[in-house]
Task: inverse folding
């Protein structure tokens, strides 16, 4: 479960392109095997790299939850 602020989706590159839902899905799929804290770090790093130094206009906030199998 990922609850993410619009600041992640609307983060804009130096070309004026938004990070968007598809890029979020790609990052989550590529790093789904990581612990939640590391997955969150990968997502934030991807957003920052995508922005290419552009000033962030909004917050980057997220809550990631993984349900573990019952023993």
Result:
């Amino acid at each position: 479960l990922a609850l993410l602020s619009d600041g992640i989706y609307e983060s804009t590159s130096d070309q004026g392109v938004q990070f968007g839902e598809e890029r979020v899905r790609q990052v989550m799929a590529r790093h789904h095997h990581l612990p939640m804290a590391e997955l969150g770090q990968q997502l934030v790093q991807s957003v920052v790299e995508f922005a290419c130094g552009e000033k962030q206009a909004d917050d980057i906030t997220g809550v990631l939850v993984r349900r573990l199998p019952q023993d």
Q: What stands out?
A: The longest helix spans residues 36-51.
